[in-house]
Amino acid sequence: MTDMEDTQAEPVRLVPWSEGDFWLLRRTNSPEMTGHLGGPESEEKLADRHRRYLELPAGRMYRVVSAADGATVGSIGYWAREWRGEAVWETGWAILPEFQGRGLAAQAARVLVDAVRRADGGRPALHAYPSVDHAASNGACRRAGFTLLGEVGFEYPKGNRITSNDWYVDLRRPAPTGGRRAE
């Protein structure tokens, strides 16, 4: 997808994660969706993840919803982490296979950046760490206005070493004009 096509992507809304959203975790837990993250999780781990999403002490998870027809197209969120001695936000997303290739991840990331800026959690940056081999997520970072800092090594999940790109948005800089808003 080109940048020009991305600007024509349908708008999205972010809906706060709720108890009834466990089905979405199950949908995104396929080998196709988790190949860059070490593979699918057990039902027990999914239930734990769902609880964590509902009880995030800092940050928030969302369902990504098409503004055009109300269809749930995926998930996105942000959470607190320490990175290189600094308190920052981390983000991650998953767009369901039938909605991929439409620029929805980049649209959702832009809406999320605006939401994080408005939440004013006192953290200076929002980072995303897609695998270097995950072209779609790296492209979404670029199209969403993140800046590439370089490659980093992670263990995620425990026992699975991956090389990721470190993308970030400086939250101290003003949002570009024409920004999108979460609801």
TrEMBL record:
This is RimJ/RimL family protein N-acetyltransferase. Coiled coil: none annotated. Belongs to the acetyltransferase family. RimJ subfamily. SUPFAM superfamilies: Acyl-CoA N-acyltransferases (Nat) (SSF55729). InterPro entries: Acyl_CoA_acyltransferase, GNAT_dom, N-acetyltransferase. Keywords: Acyltransferase, Transferase. It comes from Streptomyces achromogenes. Residues 12-174 form the N-acetyltransferase domain.
